[in-house]
Predict the 3D structure of the following.
Amino acid sequence: MANLLKNSQTARLGKSETKGLEAANTKKLTKSATRAKKEKAKYQVKDAENALLVRLKNGDVVIDMFVNDAPVHVARIKELVRSGFYNGLKFHRVIDGFMAQTGCPYGTGTGGSGQKLKAEFNRRPHVRGTVSMARAMDPDSADSQFFICFAEAPWLNGQYTVWGEVVSGMEYVDMIKKGSGANGMVAQPDEIISMSVIADL
């Protein structure tokens, strides 16, 4: 066919123009409206603007965000996601039967994005699949770190800001490498491959 290139021609082709672009630039690359619509539809979320796709080594996890219950936290999470902040971050603290925590840029549980958030405690319970903010003793110290509950944890209710729930892929959350000891710190932890707002796919 006339459109097929010979080996000698393909050898002269340069690298993809998208290779090495920053996330901010790759986001601007065009995609057909039909393809984008199909990608969003396959995740079957209520509101693509307030839903996240988290890619883990074993599979994709979809989180619905509670914009009405924790609007400031949801807005900040989306801002961090869109900046690429969470890509590559470790699940540094994972306690079997309790929760998996991530969101520290140092992978130690000691850091954040540098912007503390005022607590938005709500009536949402901590159950299997709940996504909630980690914090220090100060109720208004949540930043970028969050955790996903493996099981019900009622003692956390009203003490931590619940901002989302896993609606698919919880089986992949279950596969996150667990830590040892009471604190659940993980040696060679699993990481978030990427995190996206589904409306941006």
